[in-house]
Amino acid sequence: MYQHIFRPILFLLSAETAHRLTFQLLKILFQIPFTKNIVKWLYYFESPTLERNLLGLRFKNPIGLAAGFDKNAELVETFDSLGFGFVEIGTVTPKAQEGNPKPRLFRLLEDEAIINRMGFNNEGVEKIVERLRKRTSQVIVGGNIGKNKTTPNEQAIQDYEMAFEALHDFVDYFVVNVSSPNTPNLRELQDKEPLKHLLKTLKEKNQQKAKPKPILLKIAPDLNDSQLHDIVEIVKETGIEGIVATNTTISRENLHTQQAKIEAIGAGGLSGKPLKQRSTEIIRFLRSKLDKSFVIIGVGGIFTAKDAIEKLEAGADLVQIYTGFVYEGAGIVKEIKRGISQYFRN
C-alpha cells in the first residue's frame, strides 16, 4: 500500500516537506484510540531468534532506526510500535540550531538514494531531554551527539560533554558523531589525536557515573585503510564499546542519476543503495580487527532482509535503516525481521 499509494503522493513533495508531513500525520494518527494496537497488529513480528543481549542491554530485535530520522525524539513510541528494536535520536547538539539553508534534502530516485546536508538541525539538548523524560516506551534509545556549527573544533569537546551530561539519564547508549560531512570541519575530529582525546574525555566522564552508558563511535565510509587502522587502534586504547559503520558518503561514484542533476544538488552526504557495498566492506574490515566483545552496528543501503543478513554475516551485531525506510515504508521492518529469523533458524 505504501509503495503504490502513499509513496507516490509523498514523493510529489520535496523530501523535507514529505518528512515533516509524515511526522505530523503520525502524531495525529497515534492520538486516535486503538491506533497503536492496530499498528502493532499490522507490523508485529518478534521471535526469540531475533533477541540480542549486547552492550549490557536486551534488544528485542536487531533492527534499529538510524540517527537523523527522528532528530528530536518526537516519535520514539511510534517507531517502537512499528517494530524497531531500537531508535537512535539526534544528532543532538547543546544549543538548538536551524541547520543549513533549504533545500537540503534530495532524493535520487534512479539510485534509490538520498543526499542530505541538513547540518545537525535540532531543537537542542534541553528540549529533547524534556521529551525523553515523558516517554513511556521501553524501546532502547541511543543518543547521537555532536557539536554546534558555531563551536570551533578546539572547543568541540565541551559541546560533546554538555550533550553527554544532559542526555545521560535518558538514553541507553551514546554515539559520538564526528563523521557527518555537513558541519564544516567536523570530520577533522576523526583525525587520530583529536579523536583519541575526545573519546578518552567522554569515557572518563562516563566512568564517574553510577551507571555508565555504552559509548560508540560513528565513522565515515570515506576513510582509507590507514585511517581505519587508526580507528581500530583508538577504540581499543580508549575502551569504548562499539562502532556505527557507516555515516553518509561524499562520494558520487557509479550513480545512475544524471550528472547534471547531481551537480545541481551540490554538497551533502549520500545514503541508500549506493552505500551498501562500501559500508559492508568496512564492517568486514573492522570485525577482522576487533573481537566479538566489541559491538558493530551496520548501516548503509539496507532495503531487504538479504541486505541486513549481508551486514550481519560481515560482522555486524545490529543494523540500522534510514533510506530504505523512506523508499519501502514501515513494512520493511517486519520483512527484514522475518528474513533474519528464518536465516537464524536454518
From TrEMBL:
Subcellular localization(s) per the UniProt record: Cell membrane; Membrane
Pathway involvement of the protein, from the record: Pyrimidine metabolism; UMP biosynthesis via de novo pathway; orotate from (S)-dihydroorotate (quinone route): step 1/1
EC number in record: 1.3.5.2
Residues where substrate binds: 71, 116-120, 177, 182, 247-248
Reactions catalysed: (S)-dihydroorotate + a quinone = orotate + a quinol
Active site per the UniProt annotation: 180 (nucleophile)
SUPFAM superfamilies per record: FMN-linked oxidoreductases
UniProt GO cellular component terms: cytoplasm; plasma membrane
Family, as annotated: Belongs to the dihydroorotate dehydrogenase family. Type 2 subfamily.
Functional description taken from the UniProt entry: Catalyzes the conversion of dihydroorotate to orotate with quinone as electron acceptor.
NCBIfam families hit by this protein: PRK05286.1-2, PRK05286.2-1, PRK05286.2-5, pyrD_sub2
Protein name (database record): Dihydroorotate dehydrogenase (quinone)
Organism: Thermoflexibacter ruber
